[in-house]
């Protein structure tokens, strides 16, 4: 297993000692870093800097071509999302109104037909005979029912 050994350059170590002597004033070092709330960066307190300011500073970091591509992608995506939501809303409107205009009357007619059939069954069970269903022409006597059933063609009402 290899071993790692640090080799120091004497010229660099002498220069570091000179710089360390310049910072030996402990009162300055402690005042700058004694409290986390007072840590500053370029003279501004980090607590005073808003997120918007940090994002605005990214303009200098991100190249113009990348910013343009990101902006174009965002605009295109938002346009597709808006158009899709509009189309979905229009389709939902058409389906809802169609269901109300066509489906509701149909459901009411089916319910009414079921009610009529239930009434006929009730009358048949009471012994009243067939009145509407299967009886031909309503409450006409049997002779007239057969006579009208044998006629060919339709007469308009009133003739």
Automatic annotation (TrEMBL):
Region annotated Disordered, chain positions: 1-39, 127-159
Biased composition (Low complexity): 142-159
GO cellular component entries: mitochondrial outer membrane
Membrane topology label: Single-pass membrane protein
Descriptive protein name: Mitochondrial import translocase, subunit Tom22
One GO process term, biological-process aspect: intracellular protein transport
Signal sequence annotation: none
Biased composition (Gly residues): 127-141
Coiled coil stretches, renumbered: none
InterPro entries referenced in this protein's UniProt entry, alphabetically: Tom22 (IPR005683)
UniProt family annotation: Belongs to the Tom22 family.
CDD domains cross-referenced by the UniProt entry: TOM22
Record keyword tRNA processing present: no
Cellular compartments annotated: Mitochondrion outer membrane
Keywords: Membrane, Mitochondrion, Mitochondrion outer membrane, Protein transport, Receptor, Translocation, Transmembrane, Transmembrane helix, Transport
Pfam families xref list: Tom22 (PF04281)
Composition bias type Acidic residues, residue spans: 18-39
């Amino acid at each position: 297993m290899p071993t790692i050994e640090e080799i120091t350059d004497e010229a660099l170590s002498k220069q570091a000692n000179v710089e360390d002597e310049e910072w030996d004033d402990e009162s300055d070092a402690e005042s700058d870093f004694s409290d986390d709330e007072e840590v500053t960066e370029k003279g501004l307190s980090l607590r005073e800097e808003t997120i918007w300011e940090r994002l605005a500073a990214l303009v200098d970091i991100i190249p113009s071509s990348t910013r343009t591509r990101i902006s174009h992608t965002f605009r295109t995506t938002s346009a597709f999302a808006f158009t899709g939501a509009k189309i979905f809303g229009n389709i939902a409107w058409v389906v809802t109104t169609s269901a109300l205009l066509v489906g509701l009357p149909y459901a009411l007619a089916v319910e009414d037909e079921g009610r009529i059939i239930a009434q006929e069954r009730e009358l048949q069970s009471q012994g009243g005979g067939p009145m509407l269903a299967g009886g031909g022409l309503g409450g006409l006597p049997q002779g007239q029912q057969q006579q009208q059933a044998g006629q060919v063609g339709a007469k308009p009402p009133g003739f």
